[in-house]
Amino acid sequence: MLEMDADRLREDFPILKAGKAIYFDSACTTLKPRQVLEAERAYYEQASGCAGRSAHALAKKTSEMFESSRERAAAFVNAAPEELVWVKNTTEALNLVIRSFDYSQRKKILTTRLEHHSLLLPIMEQQRRGIVKMELLKTNPDGSFDEQSIAATIDRSTALVAIHHTTNTTGMRAPLEKIIKIAHDNGAAVLIDGAQGVPHSGVDFRRLGADFLAFSGHKMLGPTGIGCLVGKSESLEKLDSFIVGGETVESVHIGKVQFMKAPKRFEGGIQNYAGAIGLAAACDYLSKIGMKNVEEHEKKLAKRMIEAVQSVPGAAIYGSPSSEKRSALVSFNLKGVKHHQVALMCDSLSKIALRSGVFCAQPAMESLGAPEGAVRASLYVYNTEKEISLFKETLEKIAKLGN
Amino acid sequence: MLCFIALGVFAFLSLFSAKYRPLAARAFSCVARKMTLRPCDTGLDEEIKAASIAGIMKFSPQAASFVNRRFAAFSFAFTLLFFASFLLAAQGIANFAIYGNCNGPEGGFCIYSGIQNPAFLKAPSTLQGISAGNESARLTVFEFGCYTCPYTRDAEDTVKFMLEKYGDKVHFVFKPFPLPTHPNSKWAAVAAACAWEAGKYWEYREAIFSNQSYYREGGDAAFKATAARLNITGFDGCFDAKKFLAQIETSISEGKECGIYGTPTFFVDGKAFVGKDAAAEAKAEVERLLGVA
After folding, report:
1. Which of residues 305-364 of A touch B (CB under 8 A)?
2. Do A397 and B61 touch (CB under 8 A)?
3. Domain that residue B54 falls in
4. pTM for the complete prediction?
5. CB-count burial class (<10 Å; 0-12, 13-18, 19+) for B164
6. What is the SS3 string spanning B136-163?
7. Are B149 and B77 within one domain?
8. What DSSP string runs through A142-156?
9. pLDDT in tens, B247-279
10. Is the ipTM above a cut-off of 0.90?
11. Which residue of A has its CA nearest to B66?
């Protein structure tokens, strides 16, 4: 396995090449390499038709590009093409499963306080409608799981366990192996929010064993507006319809509809072809780097980043201080300086792009002891240790304001 | 607190560019919340603070730290200064519109004067007015003046000096240009014209300049009392009949045609001098042209 060269990779990213920013906001959305941009452009220049409908050459070309993209995106997480449903983003994928799942026999959904609003809100809405009963798995103030309680909480009344792969607040991973096993032992399905997991680690859907996996293109070098719901075929078939329309049906008569099988059954209307093609290009790009290399690179960055932030007087990191337990994502606060001010000043002083706030995960930030929010530095394949050094210098200057 | 300043600034800029309107809206929301004792929730105050501290930090980290700790106090002080300067600027503009000087009737340095340029003034084309000096002299000096204006009064000593010293070489013409912002200024011009008819113009003129506020406040009674004191016969009849009002109006029209925007305005061989120092500048120009400087 060749070691990845971040400096060389950076040449592929127009924004980095132009020196416009030190980009530490990849948990929000990543930068896009020219290969992805060119792939999207290729659709509009070479095909630009409708897939699966018209019979002309441009439509056929579109179908080929679109279905080839499905195959490559599915292969990226070791799933079959028919197990991959194109969606707008992770939020739509999570909504699709949570709103379409069959709760006729069991009503309990288990999740945690550490989830993104995109996972929590659909569950809370279903509970408000009286369709489900939401319960929480126990987590600790450092963002880790109370693993002893998992077996006691998941029981035969559990319909679905909806949980993150990696949080967007601490970058820490859930003990999925254990949770999935206990859930399946109890006959419950498992939905994984892979928005922060799939881009940063080699997620193998088959080996993971979960029933559903959701992720977004734009958090893994792909375009915005495209995401994937990966589901076991039998699990997808059990879901009720979600967004219905053109190309979701075999036949329609007034009063009688014959829906197609998954994944088409969930892909109503003209799809985001360019987005899917761009996402497949992003998968190819990451596969070429090698997800093991991505993980190794991030581990190094995470270690360096944690050391850098910890060395700044008055800095407090949320979650485990161990780089082994997280992706290259660090949330922190500086004593005496508000998180928004830290982020804005990093931008003003050194063009460092950070996120500040509660990261669309307010209950998570409350449970981590930062109800007002924090600063988040989230790194990816194109970041370097040199950038972290400049970040550290900038933070040290800002920290003096509060000391 | 800086949202108050931001609202003023962005609202003004919004008049010229739509890109400032969202910022103005955020500032307005922030101000509305502050006014109802709620914290600003648009983040604009934090952005302003961060940008300010970052800007200071580039020059001095110590100063940035000092300002950061006392940012609320600095914001409060800057907001008060903003409102104070806004009110003073508004007052200055109002004074400029009313008195032709941003400091009001008493005058003084006025930055707005820069927007009015004497070079654009046009010399009068007639010799109508109060004439003095040598009428056949090659050099003519015109003065557009207001009897009840402090600057015209202040110029009087220099006018007298010029008449005494260069009266044989200069033709001096005074054209009344009463400013409407000064009470009774037009009637002072009418009264002075009546005194001129009676042959006591310069005495009457000196009387007015020696106590302008008396005439500004006293009006008709003051003009008549002065005429009586100077034994000007027929004054009351002339004044009550507004005998010279039409001529004064003509003089005002001529001044407007010349572009007069302040008194006194002197024209020396066609070159204009306006305002507080106009008389001294006109004198220097006369001396230069006469070769006596």
Report:
1. 337-338, 340-341, 343-345, 348-349
2. yes
3. 2-99
4. 0.75
5. exposed
6. CCCEEEEEEECCCCHHHHHHHHHHHHHH
7. no
8. TS-B-HHHHHHH--T
9. 999 999 999 888 888 899 999 999 999 988 999
10. no
11. A401
